[in-house]
Specification:
Layout lengths: L2 E13 L6 E14 L2 E14 L6 H24 L5
Length: 86
């Protein structure tokens, strides 16, 4: 099984309801998988959070959320590729 991340984008973000210096968000990740010669597309919505500082711009916050989601997807890919049924 080979999963490839082909797209990642921030779907939404908002200030954390209780923690002042934290932003939560949802990142949409699109992966493809080749199953018996067919390309199958998977769309995931990954909930993420990041701590923010005053020095961070909106772009920095967006990037931090997407990097966190990409890390989660990477760990998922690694876990699935090392499973006995793969």
């Amino acid at each position: 099984m080979t999963l490839e991340l082909i797209d990642i984008a921030l779907a939404e973000k908002e200030a954390h309801p209780r923690l002042q210096d934290r932003v939560t968000g949802k990142v949409r990740a699109v992966l493809t998988e080749n199953i018996d010669g067919r390309e199958v597309r998977h769309e995931l919505v990954v909930p993420v959070w990041t701590d923010v500082t005053q020095a961070m711009s909106e772009q920095d916050i967006d990037l931090a959320l997407m990097v966190k989601a990409a890390d989660i997807v990477g760990r998922l890919k690694q876990r699935l590729s090392s499973s006995p049924s793969a």
